[in-house]
Amino acid sequence: MTSQSTDQTENIAPIESAVPSQNAFKSLKQYLTQQIIGQEHLVDRLLIALLADGHLLVEGAPGLAKTKAIKELSKMLEGNFQRIQFTPDLLPSDVTGTEIYRPEDGQFHFQKGPIFHNLVLADEINRAPAKVQSALLEAMAERQVSVGKQTFMLDRLFLVMATQNPIEQEGTYPLPEAQLDRFLMHVKIDYPDAEAEKSILRLARQEYKEQDNTPIELEKIQQANIFEARNTVNQLYMAEAVEEYIVQLIIATREPGRYGDDLNRWIDFGASPRGTISLDRCAKAHAWLHGKDFVSPDDVRAVIHDTLRHRILITFEAEAEGITTDKIIDTLVERVPVA
Question: What is the pTM of this model?
Answer without folding.
Answer: 0.88
